[in-house]
TrEMBL record:
InterPro entries for the chain: Ribosomal_uS4, Ribosomal_uS4_bac-type, Ribosomal_uS4_N, S4_RNA-bd, S4_RNA-bd_sf
Alphabetical list of Pfam families matching this protein: Ribosomal_S4, S4
Organism: Haplopteris elongata
Summary of subunit composition and partner proteins: Part of the 30S ribosomal subunit. Contacts protein S5. The interaction surface between S4 and S5 is involved in control of translational fidelity.
GO BP term, example: translation
Stated name of the protein: Small ribosomal subunit protein uS4c
Family to which this protein belongs: Belongs to the universal ribosomal protein uS4 family.
Domain RNA-binding S4: 82-144
Residue ranges of domain Small ribosomal subunit protein uS4 N-terminal in the record: 13-81
Main location group: plastid
Organism ancestry: Eukaryota, Viridiplantae, Streptophyta, Embryophyta, Tracheophyta
Gene Ontology CC, one term: chloroplast
């Protein structure tokens, strides 16, 4: 976790290293040359760990990106950002992506008023995401904190008639809305021989 730095999807599990560790790590980096393979591997690991994917799932997303039109680096990020677990996290209805994934797999999340229990489900523009009941989402208790969180521009957060937090997918996510600091082309280059 220290090597991969701050991951927004695991915001609740930040590790704050001591100042001495930064100085030691800086000395080691200046004496060692980092290979291109190491840079690509680190970018791939940041992406995989942030979204909680297995190696096989990430390869699948890269293969889909190769077959679709558009930037091969941005398509996997768009697909990952349109998953219900990521959308729930972005809306502020869960503190981390693993927490949001648990809400989805335990059948607490509705997409267009239908239960979705697969975190890999692909949401589309115009989809409405709500919780099954008002007490499902732990953050619903403190509505003030939900109001303070910043929501990306491809999503809209609102409260339904029953007072439940809900969200609407306005359009496909663009690169500027992705909060993960990563060079997605390094991930594609890493999988250029495997996918």
């Amino acid at each position: 976790m220290r090597r991969l730095r701050d991951l927004p999807g695991l915001a609740g599990k930040r590790i704050v290293p001591k100042l001495e560790e930064f100085q030691v790590a800086g000395d080691q980096l200046s004496s060692k040359k980092i290979s291109q393979f190491c840079l690509r591997l680190e970018a791939k690991q940041r992406l995989r760990i942030n979204y909680g994917l297995t190696e096989r799932q990430l390869i699948k997303y890269v293969r889909i990106a190769r077959k679709t039109k558009g930037s091969t680096g941005q398509v996997p990020l768009q697909l990952l950002e349109m998953r219900p677990d990521t959308i729930i996290f972005q809306l502020g209805m869960a503190s981390t992506i693993p927490t949001a994934r648990q809400l989805v797999s335990h059948r607490h999340i509705l997409v267009n008023h239908r239960i979705v229990d697969r975190p890999s489900y692909r949401c589309k523009p115009g989809d409405t995401i709500t919780t099954k009941n008002k007490t499902t989402c732990y953050i619903q208790v403190s509505g003030e904190s939900l109001q303070k969180d910043k929501v990306p521009n491809h999503l809209t957060r609102f409260f339904s008639n029953t007072g439940q937090a809900a969200g609407l997918v306005n359009h496909m996510v663009n690169r500027e809305s992705v909060s993960l600091d990563i060079n997605e082309l390094l991930v594609v280059e890493y999988y250029s021989r495997k996918a």
